[in-house]
């Protein structure tokens, strides 16, 4: 027996790996604990992590409706001292990529009985990562719902 949220995380990681984006996703990995060496994050890295699952009884027969949340973390180091005057932190293209990934996941066919329903990106990036490590980090928390 497999866990529905692990099936979902695997499907999301596989879909991202197969997708075409404006920037190549160098590393797409499924994790339980997001981590990475700063030196390895010089290439665009995406980590897919289970965030949570909510189960709601649909009927007395035990049928459940699941709401599963998955975190998709997008990370890459940016130039020390930022980019240029039009993009002072060197992160505009990365923010655009976060939006691309969001739009892609909304319609990706995961071959699972779940439907994408919601995605949030709050905060849009981790300020402390940019300040302390010149590391752009953005996390999309997406929700899929369906029968379990």
Structure characterization notes:
With 148 residues, this protein is of the alpha+beta class. The chain has a domain at 1-83 and 143-148. Helices cover 26% and strands 34% of the residues. The protein contains 3 helices and 5 strands. The chain has helices at residues 4-18, 92-107, 127-133, and strands spanning 27-30, 45-57, 64-77, 114-120, 135-147. It has a 5-stranded mixed beta sheet, with helices on both faces. A hairpin with a 6-residue loop joins strand 2 and strand 3. The longest helix has 16 residues, at 92-107. The protein is elongated and about 60 Å long.
Any descriptors?
148 residues; 5 strands; 5-stranded mixed beta sheet; 34% strand; elongated; alpha+beta; 3 helices
Give a quick summary of the entry.
With 148 residues, this protein is an alpha+beta fold.
Shape: elongated
How many distinct beta strands? Answer: 5
Mean pLDDT: 89
Weakly predicted, low-confidence segments: none
Largest β-sheet summary? 5 strands, mixed
Helix content: 25-40%
Cα-to-Cα separation, first versus last residue: 13 Å
Order of helices and strands: HEEEHEHE
How many separate helices? 3
The fraction of residues assigned to DSSP E strands is: 25-35%
Radius of gyration: 17 Å
